[in-house]
Amino acid sequence: MPKFGVLLNSLSGKAGIKPDDETLKKLLAFVEVSQFELPDEFANALERNLLTQESAAANPDVRSKIFAEALNGVDAELERSVGDFEFDDSFKGELKGIKSTHEKVRRITAGLKDQLKAAKEKANKTGDPKDKAEVDVLKKEIENANTQMNNLKLMHQTEIDNLKTANLNDKKEFTLKSKLAGKPLPKNGLPPEINILTAKTLISQEMAKQGIIVTFDEAGNPVLKQRKDGADIDYFVDNKKIDYDNFVDGVLASNKFVQINDPNPAPNPGQGNNPPQPQRSFQSNAGVVSEIDGQLRELGITV
To answer: What is the C-alpha separation between 224 and 243, in angstroms, rounded?
Structure first.
């Protein structure tokens, strides 16, 4: 079960409250409060239903609802087209068997083009203004269908871009957690997971302040880039290129969020003289990232 301190720190970050906020620090300092275990259902409800603008856009349930409403609107417009133009029963029956909105648009567009061809031939033979007007109506309807198809393609590409962004964000999250798991964060009486959340917030804020983004090279190593004049360039400070590890260490040190060496350290409660357990997060996180990449490749998405 998650601890209340972890949940409070997470929700505070979403609300824009800085990790050094005095009220937040006082609350987290109460061990009984920060270590209080919450039922999973309660914690998950708060985390999932209290959304920022960014998390709402990335939330699969929200996106599914928006896409469903958009596709329902397109389907309604397609039904109108079938009703307004003289499609035979065979065509209507075929269309009802098509589930994909994209395929429906393609099939109706093809049907309208067949009608346009016949209407043009008729207008050329009769010279009747009504027949010529029918040609113009069909041309406009085909333009509308093409616009709908372009919009659907844009929606599809947007969803792919969202998946790529989610994949990249997952990589960033696991990479940063791995780095912080091995850092000497301060011994302030708070649970390690809360210190890691605080450190993550400090680093994220500094990246936003400096306009830094994280990318990954071909070997999967994190690389810092800074956005300047519309281009992403390597991140330099005083003409020195700064790598990911140095940046993380620098942020922690400048915020004094590192452990102060004690010549006679006391054992942590419950630890006794047992040696510290080795960190395993690097291996597990690398496996998770590899699994995410594999899932996206199965969807035909290049990462």
So the answer is: 6
Q: 177 and 195 in contact (C-beta within 8 Å)?
A: no
* 41 backbone φψ class: left, alpha, beta (φ>0; ψ -120 to 50): alpha
Instruction: Classify residue 183 by its DSSP letter.
Output: S
**Over the stretch 18-61, which tens digit does the pLDDT of each residue have?**
777 777 777 777 666 677 777 777 767 666 655 555 555 555 56
226 contacts 232 by C-beta, under 8 angstroms: yes
DSSP 8-class letter at 229 = T
- pTM, 2 dp: 0.46
192-210 and 244-254 helices cross at what angle (nearest 10)? 110
For residue 57, what are its two tokens?
A: 């856009």
For residue 109, give both structure tokens. Answer: 């567009």
Q: Coil, helix or strand for 219?
A: coil
Q: Which of the 8 DSSP states describes residue 238?
A: T
Structure tokens at 3: 């601890």
Q: How many Cβ atoms sit within 10 Å of the Cβ of residue 111?
A: 21
Interstrand relation of 236-237 and 240-241 (parallel, antiparallel or unpaired): antiparallel
* CB-based contact 19:29 (threshold 8 Å): no
DSSP code at position 37? B
pLDDT tens digits, residue range 62-121?
556 656 666 677 777 778 777 777 788 888 888 888 888 878 888 888 888 888 898 899
Give the single-character DSSP code of 278.
P
Amino acid at 13: G
- Name the helix (H) or strand (E) containing 151: helix 129-181
**Rounded distance, CA 277 to CA 189, Å?**
19
The amino acid sitting at 153 is K
The whole-angstrom separation of Cα 248 and Cα 227 is 19
Nearest to 212 by CA among 236, 178, 196, 239: 236
Cα–Cα distance for residue pair 124/121, rounded to 1 Å: 5
Coil, strand, or helix at residue 36? coil
